[in-house]
UniProtKB/TrEMBL annotation:
It comes from Deinandra increscens subsp. villosa. PROSITE patterns: NAF, PROTEIN_KINASE_ATP, PROTEIN_KINASE_DOM, PROTEIN_KINASE_ST. This is non-specific serine/threonine protein kinase. Residues 25-288 form the Protein kinase domain. Its cofactor is Mn(2+). GO terms for molecular function: ATP binding; protein serine/threonine kinase activity. CIPK serine-threonine protein kinases interact with CBL proteins. Binding of a CBL protein to the regulatory NAF domain of CIPK protein lead to the activation of the kinase in a calcium-dependent manner. Keywords: ATP-binding, Kinase, Manganese, Nucleotide-binding, Serine/threonine-protein kinase, Transferase. CDD domains: CIPK_C. The keyword ATP-binding applies.
Amino acid sequence: MTPTLSECAGEEFQPAAEKNLFGKYELGKLLGYGAFAKVYYGWDIESKQSFAIKAINKQRIMKNGLTVNVKREISAMRRLNHPNIVRLQEVLASQKKIYFVLEFAKGGELFSKVSRSRFSEDLSRRYFQQLISAIGYCHSRGVYHRDLKPENLLLDENWNLKVTDFGLSAVTHYDQADSAESTQSADGLLHTMCGTPAYVAPEILAKNGYDGAKVDIWSCGIILYVLNAGFLPFNDPNLMVMYRKIFKGEFRVPRWTSPELKRLLSRLLDTNPETRITVDEIVTDPWFRIGYNDGGFSSDHFEMKDGDDGGRNGGNLKSLNAFDIISFSSGYDLSGLFGDQDAGEMFLSTAAPEEVIERVAEAAEEERLTVVRRKKWCVKVDGGQYRKFTLLVEVKGLTEDIVVVEVRWRECESEPGPEMWNDRLRPRLSSLIYQPDGPVTGN
Ligand code: ADE
């Protein structure tokens, strides 16, 4: 994770001496850091409640003229109270530092999960719904985030998205007196160059002023694209080339993208802010609306039962909480197995784990692949000497009725080609994939 005002670097400032904050909070391990701030895990000494405590180096902030950013962040976060936005509990200050006591998002960064496996369209939609719910709320309160990017999207222990890091946010039409140096000029547009290149809207690059709401929508479009694809729509190692691609706004969607999603992406990533889709239009989009209950994620599907440590199937399946599930790869480290070139997908299913494994094994055999290892919750398949393809499928229990299926594969450019999972195996397993309109339990 990257705290606000990032640009990683910076001198160490020792937490040890300040482990105890005003006798009220205890500071634990470092969660992340940037040039001006560090974020620690912390807890309320009395209640034991967990928090993320952002310690901001006052002197550096002042030296770099960033006082206004800190004030703006406090002002923005104070006015926000939404289930998908990290809550600001309180702000404390010592002589050298300012401390933000923030709601702790136990699941870490959403995108550390996507970087391992792209998300199914259903999962992508659910996170996008939560994101839009949060952003629509911010906009309605006159707050524009302006730096929406993967590091600023966290997860709590219940599989819920939490938007954080309002360090670049601009506050308008509420109490602008909060910030002596407003960034809004006479034309009503914002004029600060901010954001992260790959997520930055073309009008920011053009430096002609921009509308905070419109640039947030663009970033949401990039985020949705990445959730679905597992990679960026506009990317290049050369920054100028990347900018050119952003300006042109030409992107290709991966072949697994539905026409409805493709349509929405093209409306989000419209280079013309005037015609770009608005939050009000997004919430009526047919692709977006599926399973949407206005509170964002319908938590019914993901809630854990109290004390859920048993499981279904006579307790054979260890039930995990959502946090365990989204980070389950760490419990079964695949990195040594697959290295860097692997690809993957993660989806939800209401089928029994045994059924998932059975169906994968069947599909593989129909493709004349070999099941090389099979356990109750895991199967490994490969193409043998002449077909350089390896597939690993792992099933984990999320709730009594839903499992998470993580699929990872590696293939060579030669036979059987990159289509093995997407075009041959996945279609055979499509009925296993949980659809919000009507959960399917296998065949
Ligand atoms: N890193 C930065 N902010 C955080 C938060 N609120 N919870 C967990 N990790 C974080």
